[in-house]
Amino acid sequence: MFSILVPIAVSADAHIAADIDRGEGDGSIGIAVIDDERDGLEAISLLLRTLGYRVYPGRSAAEACFAHAVEGNDKAPIDLVITDYRLEAGTTGLDAIKQMRAHLGHSVSAVILTGDTSPERLKEVAASGHLLLHKPVDAEQVRQAILQLCSPQMPAFSASHH
């Protein structure tokens, strides 16, 4: 199961307004989103577009690369990869991140989303150094992860693992 919690109404939260004033969501940050589950892919892509990011979605790294080539003309940067851990054909989010880095020709920050709680998987992801978020994720967790990884001047984000 994949779920994402998104508020129906936008709160008048001062820190969100302050972040937007600093440039969050101005279309300058490009994010590749990879999830083999269509509903999950559409949900996270919609959330990111609503927050004002450029999104290059794909059900695989190859599809996300294609979206980047078509929509971004390969010139718009991809600043972050958000990928599900378990993908089709036995591939993982770690494989997808490697493929995206090869496509881009440089390293890029990444977030791995997982509902998997097996110790082996969690160790593997932790060893990769990528930020891990446990499903279901909410809009604020995703927003904070983007700010942490794409805005070096922002205070560090501490992921809550529950």
Describe this structure in words.
This protein has 162 residues and is of the alpha/beta class. The chain has a single domain, classed as Response regulator (Rossmann fold, 3-Layer(aba) Sandwich), CATH 3.40.50.2300. The protein contains six helices and seven strands. A five-stranded parallel beta sheet has the order 3-2-4-5-6, with helices on both faces. Helix 3 (61-71) runs parallel beside helix 4. It is globular, with a radius of gyration of 15 Å. The two termini are 16 Å apart.
Outline of the structure:
By secondary structure, the protein is an alpha/beta fold. The protein has 6 helices and 7 strands, in the order βαβαβαβαβαββα.
Helix tally equals 6
Strand percentage lies at 15-25%
For the record, the CATH class is Alpha Beta
The CATH superfamily name is Response regulator
Q: Report mean pLDDT, rounded to a whole number.
A: 82
Principal-axis shape: globular
Poorly predicted residue ranges = 10-23, 153-162
Largest sheet: 5 strands, parallel
Could you spell the SSE succession in H and E letters? EHEHEHEHEHEEH
